[in-house]
Amino acid sequence: MNQGPGAAAQEPGEDTVREFSGLVQDWAAAIVANDPGRIAGFMADDWVIVSESGIDPKEKFLSLVESGALTHSAMDLRTRPRVRVHGDTAVVTGRVTNTAHYQGERYDADEWTTDVFVRRDGRWRCVLSHITPAATDISSTAPE
What we know:
The chain is of the alpha+beta class. Helices cover 24% and strands 47% of the residues. Strands 1, 2, 3, 4, 5, 6 and 7 form a seven-stranded mixed beta sheet that branches. A hairpin with a 2-residue loop joins strand 4 and strand 5 (89-102).
């Protein structure tokens, strides 16, 4: 079986969807706990987040959490995640709402998120997170 980057996407079974749903929910719980060590446990060393402000590395994100400049009080997956597995790479997309505080100012967000995971040493680690604000006039379900 071809497990390399050119491997065809596998339609995930229910167990795989549940596995990634649990992984995403556990990561969200770590973020809401504002625990940089727990958060880092879900990230690969080369993780980055892509947002409207550009590309930010793991170190910047975690340092903001550690300093208290960035905190989260809520993070909820609003859709069943769309999961596609390509060998040792998985792409997980879903709609997430969250409440964050950045430098004392509250931000409520409704976003579509895509996380790219790679399987390393038998564990899934996120290498990239991409967030896009959700339009207010669209359905809240992820396409299959």
